[in-house]
Amino acid sequence: MRSFRHALTTQIAALGLLVFVATGAATGPSFAQAPPQRDLRNGWEVHRELVVSPQAHAEAPKYFPSFFEYHDMVMFHPTVGYYASGRVDFVDHYRTYPVVLAPLFGHMVAEQIFAMWNGMRRAGTLSERDRFTIAEFGPGDGALAEAILDYLVRRAAEDAAWRTFADQVLYVCYDRSPSLNKVQQERNARFGKRFEARVADATNMTATIAKGSLKGVVLSNELPDAFSVHKTILSADGTAEVAFVVPALPAETWRTVQPLLSATAAQAIEADDKAIEDRFLGGQREGAVYLSKASFVALLEHLRSAPTYEATANAMQFRELYAPATTVPIVAEHLGRYAEMYAGVLARDARGLVTYVNPGAERFIRDAAQVLSAGYMLTIDYGGNFEEMLNQHSYPRFRTYGPASRNRANLAPNQVDTFAPYVGPTLNDFTTDANFTLLAAEGELVGLKAIYYGAQRALQAGTSVSLDTVPSARENEGNAAEFQSWATSFAGPSVYKMLLQQKTGTDPAYRFAGQHPESLGLGTTTLDPAQRSRADQIAARLKAQAAVLKVSK
User: Fold this and answer.
1) Does residue 177 have a pLDDT over 90?
2) What is the pLDDT of residues 286-303, one digit of tens each?
3) Above 70 in pLDDT, residue 383?
4) Cα dist. 96→7, 153, 331, 482, 498 in Å?
5) Is 477 exposed, middle or buried (0-12, 13-18, 19+ CB in 10 A)?
6) Mean predicted confidence (pLDDT) in 81-96
7) Secondary structure class of 400 (helix, strand, coil)
8) What CA–CA distance (Å, rounded) separates 290 from 272?
9) Which residue among 40, 115, 158, 500 has its CA within the 20 to 30 Å range from the CA of 367?
10) Average pLDDT of 169-176?
């Protein structure tokens, strides 16, 4: 379900380009304590750090959203979030391969799924009475579903095997947004009982889908990059800190906004502001109005229909406060679970780094394994393996795309704003490159074996689909040149990858037709003796931070 980032992402990756824009226009309030001099490979990703006393760290979660909570709210809040608000436009704002290579991208996926179905029938793990479910998570406006089902219906009219396949298929679009569910249903209503749109959270599938109830394929295109993430600093010695977000309104903006609120709402915001200044700023009155996580959400909810909404969102100022990773247990536990991987990367360089922990992606994999009794998981996204994700810092792994970011006066259309998470909250799309090593590693723990990882272009392998001819619909729309450009990009080197995982026991004879698999880096990292010693120390520290939580429980 994710946005068009192809042209920029690919361009940056190819050039090894670092482009970022400072937000000098927003000076914001001053803080008494200066941020530490951190030695980080990508320290420019730390945004206007607020340093508080160690005693205040424990109180941070009470007052401020974690970066994860901030991310989740601005993207998925049921009324003001980017996806639920009606501001998202899947044609104008975004371009994805299923759209720009429509309908042929969907045809490739359909043929790959047909091969999986055929294998399961031969293996006996799918009987003629079973339903074969294509469960697409994060389906956006349902365009990929439409292309796949159109192709299935056409092939069923020509071929007996495809007809049998079509008779068993149920295509379900799962999305946490009811408004997008409606769009998906309207778009694909003509497929009748073969299609459904249901509300479900990809990071909590088992809340709505019974364990072991599905045979088929769990499909996603540009979804893990959309999950909310924890922004995390890993120091060279293995000390880990997690980001909290401190929102504020400039005094002049507050004077404009206050009359639009009820007296009760305004008083609650001012009370939170005073509490924050007392607890975190030593009682200093800075002039700006600081927002707790409750005030931040309430303010946007109160203003969602006001003509000043976008202006208020764009005027907001933000700081980051970093607290020990143990403040957010899920982060410390993740770092402890994969301590050796992180340690191997950190040990190669004497500097630390800013990285992003994606618990939703891990939960997505674990839940898919639970709801699948037999079948496959096909994940298509941009990203790389573990070392690529942590070692490559020529551009930010977390990025913002969208009209508010593009239209900033000081930001050219082809530039990346490293501070963009805080530009126009709820007005833009967020994305984080997918770490395919962690997706595969989580799968191995729960019975999902990685059987192929490589460039997205492998989807074409073993299919009858050709990208050499422009589809007539694209020709008629005058988009032939655009299609050809994208087709060339699809066939070349790319940061877009696919990961195919198989549920244990599904079909031992199945082989994916794609060639040139890429390394997931699941093996032991090669380190010299000094690096190995340093890695052992770092891993021990990361595990110790996780162990603290187990003891406290």
Assistant:
1) no
2) 679 999 999 999 999 999
3) yes
4) 10, 24, 31, 13, 14
5) exposed
6) 71
7) strand
8) 7
9) 115
10) 96
What are the structure tokens assigned to 180, written together?
A: 């997008």
511/82 Cα distance (integer angstroms): 40
Distance of CA 330 to the CA centre of its chain: 17
Q: How far apart are the first and last CA of the chain?
A: 38
Rounded to whole angstroms, the Cα distance separating 177 from 467 reads 33
One-letter identity of residue 477:
E
Mean pLDDT of 278-282: 88
Smallest Cα–Cα separation from 535: which of 445, 357, 543, 322?
543
The span from the CA of 149 to the CA of 63, in Å, is: 48
Mean pLDDT of 158-164: 98
Torsion of CA 48, 54, 59, 65, to 10 degrees: 30
* Cβ-based neighbours of 232, under 8 Å, separated by 6 or more: 240, 241, 242, 243, 325, 331, 335, 354, 355, 356, 357
pLDDT at position 26 is 36
Closest to 143 in 3D by CA, of 109, 177, 178: 109
What are the DSSP E strand ranges found in 262-334? 289-290, 317-324
Three-state DSSP string of 32-78: CCCCCCCCECCHHHCCCEECCCHHHHCCHHHHCCEHHHHHHHHHHCC
Q: Which residues of 245-273 are buried (b: 16+ CB within 10 A; e: fewer)?
A: bbbbbbeebbeebeebbeeebbebbeebb
Phi, psi angles (nearest 5°) of residue 278? -70, -45
* 8 A C-beta contact, residue 432 and residue 358: yes
- HSE at residue 134, side-chain half, CA atoms within 13 A, is 29
Return the structure tokens found at 104: 């042929």
- Nearest Cα residue to 320 out of 226, 404, 249, 248: 248
Q: Taking the CA atoms of the chain, what radius of gyration do you get in angstroms?
A: 24
Rounded to whole angstroms, the Cα distance separating 228 from 73 reads 9
- Residue 23, pLDDT > 60, answer no
Bridging pattern class, strands 372-384 and 496-503: antiparallel
Which H or E run includes 354?
A: strand 353-357
Q: Is the pLDDT of residue 390 over 50?
A: yes
Q: Residue 287's pLDDT is what? A: 79
Candidates 109, 436, 367, 443; CA nearest to 214 is: 367
